[in-house]
Protein 1
Amino acid sequence: MSTRIRQPKRTQPLHPDAPLLYPDHPLPHSRRDFIRTGLMTGGAAVMGTGLLGLLAGPRTAHALSPDLIPLLDDCGIATQGAGKIPFICFDLAGGANLAGSNVLVGKQGGQRDFLSTAGYNKLGLPGDMIPPALQTNSTDDHINDTMGLLFHSDSAFLRGMQTVLSPAAMALINGAVIAARSENDTGNNPHNPMYAINKIGADGSLLTLIGSQSSESGGNSMAPVGMIDTSKRPTKVDRPSDVTSLVDVGDLSSLLGSQADSVAVMESIYRISARKMDRVSTGLPLVNPGNPSLTDAVVKDLVSCGYLKSADLAERFGNPATLDPALDPAIVGGIFNSTEFAQDGEFRKTAAIMKLVVNGFAGAGTITMGGFDYHTGDRSTGEIRDFRAGVCMGACLEYAHRVGVPLMLYVFSDGSLSSNGMLDMSVEGRGKGQWTGDNQSTASPFFLVYNPDSRPQPVGATPEAQAMSQQIGYFRDSGDVETSSSPAANNVNLLVETIALNYLALHGELGRFETLFPGHGLGSIAARDALVAFQPIVNGTI
């Protein structure tokens, strides 16, 4: 057991939205720098009506005419999501602590193959709080297995998630941690996997990808260059007012008095346009070998489909009352109370992303939270920020539970940090090690999977093998990532491939990996399959 070293002076914890600036760090000058330091946060505007609240439901009295519904597919108009598991990733900008003090990490045998006391000390845990140590006046250790994946019993992420997750939801969650280094304080880590997830098939009926940042990846960290598809660039969504303008059916509803009348008028416009287009010539050739997309028939179809899409949008999204997240009792009054939802931009941002993704209106989304470069010489600042991030993570999982669909939730950060053993004995510091410096060798992302049918089952024929499958790669006894423990351990590009592999595995589609990602770096099929954490939870589509 280590000796508790008390901090020389006590400091007040910083507000979770307070920026973090250090004399040994350059002044922020780019968008990513401002996010990392916490100078840019979630939207603070109070929500208006928006695209949120999109719930897949039966067509009602204002539905499209039956003869038009088959044409939706011909026009590329999706009436539901693509049938893949919804995917949300949390990009904690700045280099957050994920391993040890939050998600447990161990040596070759998995999370319960414990590190040395010195190793956990580097990860911010004093000797009397290491995982196998008994809690004061208790026979319990410091391990929490409520959600399958092992968390430290005093993890701030866990405590945050527990405030919004129901016991029923927690019983249907499992997860895995990946021992993997990443560079500190930079957005140049190609962490973001959303293009890979879309390549596998994740899509939405309204948007393909969304993210809370106006960037190529939709988040703070980059996406692997070879995976970027500029035609699928994420749409920025970080507050309800951002999504209000995504669907605009004009003033028909207010002029005509009802949504049903609006749909009927737009259908009539479509029919009139289609009949007229049949009688006119665009002047374009019927066949154009040099440019097959520029022919008389193609242009006529584009015009007709435009009117049909307007009618479809009026049917599904023409009533603002059905789209407002504040009117969704599962979110406001359910997961969040009205006061915290109104006051905290991070909660509204999370609600915006989870509403669209979980309901299949977007295929995948990135939630960026800034200000996680919290080596402020205390522990309290990081604990407060981790707790709020945990609340947001738990909100996504609980919402998936209430809607009744599976969800894969991935959490990563650009770099990490370590402790020198000095303890923060303040109330918020909780007697844990102060964060005193950046340390890319202690980084480890993790993912959680919610399955409404049953808890996801780890791969492996024995409990020992299953435990090892929930930790991809491993740590050294010293508290550092063993860089040879997996392809992902020292290569962020391959970390993204590992996430894509596990997403495919949840669908029972491992056989598609070689075709979708030719030239991947995960090795032979046997080596590749050793990186899979869970058995399938769906058969291809949901």
Note: The CA atoms of residues 107 and 474 lie 5 Å apart.
Protein 2
Amino acid sequence: MTLHVCVRGIGIRRSKDLRARFRKFLNLTNERKNMSTKTLRKRIALVAVATLGAGVLSVAPANATEGVATIVTAGGQGILTAVSGSAGAQTGTMLVTGQIMADIDGGSTTSDTVITVSGGTIVSQNISSVGCTIQTPTKILLIDDTQSGGTSACQDVVFKPTAAGTNMVVSSYVGSTDLAAGTRTDKITMTVVASGIVGVFSASQSLISINDNDSSTATAADTVYANVVGNGDEGRINYELKDGLGASLPANTSVSAAVTSGQCILGASSGGQDLSSVTLTSPDADIFVAQNAASEDLSTTCSVALSVAGAVVATKTFLFQGAVTSIVVSSVEIADSGASAQTGLGYVVAKDAAGNSLGGITLAAGSGANQSVSSITFSDGNSMTASGSTSVNVVDTSHSAAPASTPTSIGWTCSGVKGSAQMNLKYAVGNGTYIYSNTFTAACNGDAVNYKASLDKASYVPGDIATLTITATDSAGAAANDQEALGTATTAEPAIAGSNMTAVTAATNADTFTAGKKTYKFIVGSTEGSYNLVVDLPKINSTTYSQDAVTVPYSIKLSSSAVSNADVLKAIVSLIASINKQIAALQKALLKR
């Protein structure tokens, strides 16, 4: 028997097949009713989710704004960093094997919506979408609701990235199908990474560095001079191992270190190292490196390789300093006898047998002090070969072995009496034994009261470089001290001038003497003649010590290879005379015939 039922004027036979079709009709009607409710918001939303295989995460947005994608992701396969940020600048990170799924509502306005993707493609669209057309693999057109009876929407549009290392960017435009004329209302940028980087060591993300021996923090680069280790001390390698996303490697990651060259030993903690290789138990730890017994007191270089999962990922090299074998004092100046404590009068460096400059070495004055010169003082006041509060020759006091860019300076105190002493410095080795520096002259001399001047040559050729030397002495006839300036003010500026002499660097008030001498260079001009160079130092001039400006004679002549006009004229006259003589002889010979 067949039962006919009338529903709003439509006849339907009662059968299993027709009942199914009827229920489907009612469901579709309810769906469209719900869709129409959504369009009343006058909004467009993109809901991005990550999918990998069958895993799908779908979270609906709240209070969506037209053309703005509200991305709410708590995690999911394919997404590594949940999308975040304000409209127009949302960002996230995903695997290249993942994908973004979006629901797009047409809204109730009369504007069409265009969705584009770069660095990826549109791979699928739900069949229930209305007014939604994939025009190209990278562009979707969604017509406005007025054209579809208030039901336009794209359901489950899937965007898949093209390749790792290239961002996938999804953008929405409202108001025109022409992207140039439309207004971009949102932009989602997904950083696409390779699927094999999660939990895998990344050199660019990891930090492996040599740091000061009291530091436990890895940095992007080695600390300056931290690879220089004092005799008997230890070095330290800090590391933080990350994967391609910057996340720490798993705790069970295999990490090891081994000595690849040199004589040193390793340990996972400070002190007591006795291994040539060591296995570590954390992706964030330290390796301690020290000299072995055979290299004690000797300078040696040692390289250590760090391996992750059996592969070498970094090699660090240390310079271990040896024991003190020499002390070198250099660039010694003359102190002002009228001043008390003075610094910066010379440099001192302690060295090992390999010539390495050593920091943190305590020195003392040796022998030679007299009534004019008292004991040596150091620039830091601690009598050590380093800078800072505890050592000299170091940049960072927390790593006292490192040499500074400028050696330690020394000075001494003058008692007001002019004179000098032959002195040295010493380093205590132990048991009453010392290592002594080279002997140097510690002098306390007065200011300049007299001066002389001389040129390096009496005669020059054009283009020569002439060197002027001014020699100054104190009232005792000794070299003027190195603190003495040539001038004091505009009324006492040094004046040096001579014809056809151009100064390479002009003399100034601030110029000082070195061991009682000061030199200047001049470019010699091209005009021949005899001239005088006048050297006038008003600050030093005095009737008390019979000092006035000094005149230095010099001459300029052409070089021996040049020929003057006079020489040319003389040669022409001689040639004419020779020709006339030959003509006369020829005429005489012809007349005899």
Note: The chain has six domains: 4-38, 40-197, 207-320, 326-445, 450-556, 567-593.
Protein 3
Amino acid sequence: MRKNFFSIWLRPFLVVLFVLMGIIALGAIGDRCLLLTGHLDNSLYRLLLPPAVEVPGLLGMSVEFLAAIVGIAITVASILVQLSATRYSSRVIDLFIEDRVNLAVYCLLIVTPLYGVWLAYIGGNLLYPTTHLILFKGLTMFSIMVMMPYFNYLFHFLRPENIVHRIQGSVRLKHLTRAPSPPQLDRLQNNLIGSVTQLSDVVSNSISNSDMHLALLSIGSLKSLAADYCLVKSEAPSAWFNVPPRTFLGFEEISLLRLARDRTWVEMHCLKQFELILILSLNRFREISAAIAHRTRDLGMLSLTRGDEKAVELTVLFFNTYLRHAINAFDIRTMFHTFYHYRLLAEGCLNQQWRELLKKIAWYFKYYGQECERRGVSFAMEIAAYDLRVLVEQAYLVYPAVVDDLLIVFLDVDHAPDTESEKSQRGVRKNQAILAAFFLAHGEQALARRIFDDMQHEDCERMASIARELEPLTSQDFWEIQERGSNFYYFPPENMPHLQEFFSWFQRREAAAVSL
């Protein structure tokens, strides 16, 4: 309570008082200097001042005029700030109050009429001509002249993108590396939590107002804030990782203890905001869901490069959560984007350090692909199969040691219980055939045979029709506009002979069966 009294009441009062006393002291010093040098009766000096008899009336008119200007400035600013706070975030009010330009302008507009009132009351006791009148005249003219630039500054200040940048810039993460005291640490935590939440509020309000540009900009700022934190996380003191009270109100005590142990409460807070935004965008704004998946992948990749195992695992859990929300909402477009960025994150795990996590991600792809099939979300299993196939190909090129583990999962994608969707099965088989051609092109006949063994019970006519469907796909780009831009069933033309070789195995099997 005492701190609030100082910051809300006492500090502004003292600022105005000290500035007013400083101006009065400046006027007195000016008079003293002119008196000592004999320039007080200078004709030019008198030319700048009105006749002594007119001073009281001019002071009164000037004070009234300044009071009107102050009223206009406060009215315009309060209306604009309130509208911006309602439309975007309540943080706008805090930013406005904390901004030094706003404080300087309002200090000028308040001190100048107070100075005029002071002159009006004690004017009879001052020398004439006096420096005080010149100072007041100059301050009055400056107050009038500064109004137009100030309103221009105010409109610029309240532009949505500038609000977003100011919220992001208000978090002083570099202070974490300077051994902050416990009170400073609490302020940093509260500031970070508030800024992340307020950026999320801006996105939510922008979605409600269909302002996609601002929503995407805010998502980018939220990601940048989290990325900046990742860069200084290793230098933060141990006390920083204690979960601040009332940050995760719906979490059980054991979950909070796990966040403190894993040092991931900041990542959790940021990614929870991403999750809330994703839920708002489901089946409504595909650009938002794509941006959420993309920015989550960026944070995961940054954690990968810094070796933050717990943060990477948390990112994986959120990707799984995004897929679950998309499945529940039957939002195939969100799955489309999420699987893509999830796979790019998995490609970053193609080394020995992340081998076990990579195997888990592959299993998650299979699980959610099959879950989509069980829920009747068509085409989602094909998306999962395509991304798994690309992941296996990249693993072969970058980290061959994990290919066997990934291939086992990939061949099991279409073995979902209680599902018999011919369309999805054909999509999975196409991806498996393309992968077999990839292996044959690299001289890995044994791996291609494993795929054939998994498909050997397929009807020969069905496989022939799949082969005919793959032959015309000669363009790497899909023939419609879509975010990925890739054709799921495209493969390099030089692999066509190997694909034909793979399908010929089914014909040989059929011929051998007939001969028997």
Note: The mean pLDDT is 83.
